[in-house]
Structure formats: structure tokens, C-alpha cells
Amino acid sequence: MSLDAARAVVELITGGWRAQAVYTAVKLGIPDHIAAGRTTDADLAAASGSKEDGVHRLMRLLVAIDVFEGNGRDGYRNTPVSEALLDVPGSQRAMCLLYGEEFYAAWGHAHQAISTVSSGFEAAYGTPLYAYLGEHRDASDRFQRAMKAGNLFFDHVPTVYDFAGKHVVDIGGGNGALLAAILAATPNARGTVLDREHVVDAAKANLAATVGLDRVTVVGGSMFDGVPEGGDVYLLCRVLAGHSDDDIVGLFESIRAAMGESGRLLLLDRLVTDDGESTMLPALWDLHLLMTTGGRHRSREHLTTLLHRAGLEVERSAELPVETTALIVAPRA
Description:
Elements: H1 3-13, H2 15-27, H3 30-35, H4 41-48, H5 52-64, E1 68-71, E2 75-78, H6 80-83, H7 93-100, H8 102-107, H9 110-116, H10 120-125, H11 129-135, H12 137-150, E3 167-171, H13 177-185, E4 190-195, H14 197-210, E5 216-220, E6 233-237, H15 245-259, E7 264-269, H16 280-292, H17 300-309, E8 312-320, E9 324-331
Helix pairs in contact: 2-5, 2-7, 4-5, 7-12, 11-12, 13-14
């Protein structure tokens, strides 16, 4: 056996341990305690209500993998990685907590999920993800904040499409962060957000604090029950993965009817490829979707087929940060 291969196996199979160590540090508030000047093992143990020996052993690992610097006697320091986990707006903290709790439990059922092509989350919790979020406000809040933290490409969307003077309808728009980014960059545009009832209040609050409610309308409901009519541009940002091909075609048909001949649909998503050259993150996120919703990422070819069934076609495409592709979609001639 190759020693390099054996080491690579160890690195792979212990990845979950490292993830849980980072999650535990965030759960204990260690990045924030260090930022507040509580930097030794004893300080961190007292501040987090933990045993000093446990904190020391946790921090020994996290220093080794460059999450923190220093030592427990002279004091630890935050690195850019742990600074990204501080309890401040725009950090990765909520994502870390969500992935370390509910989503980690879902991955514990990976064998069942992959063998049966079904949701690991549902196996772990006995209910689908979105139903669970509708019943657990804290988890829903963490989910919305995690999605916001993962949407690092939002500010770049106005660079790939001209929204000037347009009515922009964001379907499944969550807390309205994407629409807010577009409207902030395009002062003469206006918008509508459609999402489930339990996130409407968060969308109103976020949009009121960013661009103001005079330019937006927030609508509660399911996108599969119909979409607002009269928009110039419709957005679908990472909302298709948990749904069947037939449901997606039905949604595309609703958008096609609502937007008219001059309208456009922007699909913003991670696309997978099956040519043996798929990059790691899209493939990893695709498998993660199976764990959480039973869903999947699709290839450009797959989405093109579904769009054609609904009387739509890809007009052009553009690449965005963090492995995101924008497909600009028009009515088929």
C-alpha cells in the first residue's frame, strides 16, 4: 500500500471531525471570546462554560489546521478563517451552526440517502426540510442567514444583466437579499419577492432596511401555486434543486405565461457536468442536496430540455463567483 494513498484516505475520512471541531468552536463562541480579549484556555473555558481540558484539546486541533493561532498559555489569536465565523452581520457563523447540527445529522444517513435516492434529512428528522423549517423558527432563521452567507455572488448579478427600469420578480427570494442587491445597483428598477409565508416577515424587514418598501412588494405563497404577473425579469436563484422535473416544467410554464414575449428569466444556479471534469464544489453541493432535500443540481443540458418543454430557451449565459452560472432565458420563437 502506498503511504501517500493511505495518508490521503485518512485525510478524507477524518474531514467530518474537523468540521465538527470548527462547529463546536462556533457553538461555544470562541472566535467572539478571543475578539473580546479572552484568549487563554482558562479564559475561554470560563467564558464558554466549558472544562479547560476540553477547550485546550479542541484549540490544539484548530490551531493545527489554521483556524486560530497561538497557544493556551500565552493566548490565542483569530485568523481570517475564525474572523469569518464571528457573530457579526455577513459572517459564516449561521452556516457553520446549520451545517454542524441539522445538516450534519442528515449526512449521518448518507448510505440510506444514496442507496435509495431519498432525503437524508427526512430520515434523520422524520419530515422534509422545508416543513421542518416552517415549524422551527430558530432553524429557519439560521437557514436564511446561512443562505445569505453563501450568496457571495449577489452583488455581481447586475453586471451580467441590465435591470434598468425593469420590474424584477424574485421567485423563492427568501429574505430579499438578491433583490436588494439588484435594486441598490439599479435605482430606477422595482421589485417583487415571492416566498413561503414563514419567511415573508424576514423579507419585509430586510428590504425595508436596505432599499425601502416603496420600491418592492412582498408576496407570501408557493411558487407552484402561481407567480406574480407583469414582471419584466423573473429570477430563480438556487430554488429548483429540491423539486421534480415535472414540477419545474410547470413553474417554467407559469413564468412563461406571466412575463409575456419581451420578458426574460434569469436562472442562477450551480451546474454539474457528467463528462468526468466536474469540479469538486458543484459535485459536493449536488450530493449535499440529496442529503437535505432529496434534490439535485442539474446540468445545462438537463435544464435546457426542461426549458424547451415550457416554451423557453437559453439566450446566453454568464459565469458568476463561487461556481454559479447565470442562464438568461427567453421565450422560444
